[in-house]
Amino acid sequence: MKRRTFLQTSTLGLAGLGLPAGASSLMQQQEGIQAWFRQITDAVQARRKPNLSGCPPQLTELILETDTFLAGRGFERESNGAFFCADGNTCFYPLLLRRATAGLSDFLVPVFNRQPDGTWKRLAVLNGYQLEALGRAASALAEQPIPPHELLLPAGPSPADGSTYQTLRGAVTTKTQLQYGSAQTEITIYSDQQIIFTENYRSRHTLCSTPIGNA
After folding, report:
1. pLDDT in tens, 86-106
2. 16 band by pLDDT with thresholds 50, 70 and 90
3. Which of 21, 108, 113, 23 is nearest to 71 (CA)?
4. How far, in Å, are 64, 127, 129, 159, 199 from residue 175 at the CA level?
5. CA torsion angle for 70, 16, 8, 59 (degrees, to 10)?
6. Cα–Cα distances in Å, from 152 out to 27, 131, 141, 212?
7. Disulfide engineering: 188 pairs with which of 4, 71, 183, 198, CB 3.0-4.6 Å?
8. Which residues on neighbouring strands pair with residue 175, listed in sequence order?
């Protein structure tokens, strides 16, 4: 099954991510992270809601709690919107690190999942290294007959445990080791207790404004 491109006709530049024009200089420093986020969003056919009106109150409360916590660590949202996929059962959105003057740029992506009883849980907060890894996996698994969100995104009752989170079809493990100014990342995706994708590579994401190429 070829990767579906629901968002290819939408504007996923600054406007598509809900970012105002004033954020353009910062976004230019993190085109890699933006591209990986767009790639994942495209792969799972996520739809963006421009605001949280109409969202379940409990989900809204979880989002506000998460935003408050991460704002204290320098990460802020640029709009009130969020992306939804998996028949509306998964919610996620980007938070931007505002430290461009220090040469730092990064995203964090909180992921929430609706439980069978209708309640919502925050299952993971994905970082830039994980976004890069998931983007690579999305490309490699584009021909899989299993819907991408069932392989790539957190789901189920259990929050992420260290470097591993559960998905609808299995689990994803990502590990990054930093050494001498570069990062080596390994991602492994399991489905039905079997490895269906694994890759170990030199990360382009370096938390700085100038990405490095792959080894």
Report:
1. 999 999 999 988 665 555 567
2. very low
3. 108
4. 28, 11, 9, 17, 11
5. 50
6. 25, 10, 10, 25
7. 198
8. 186
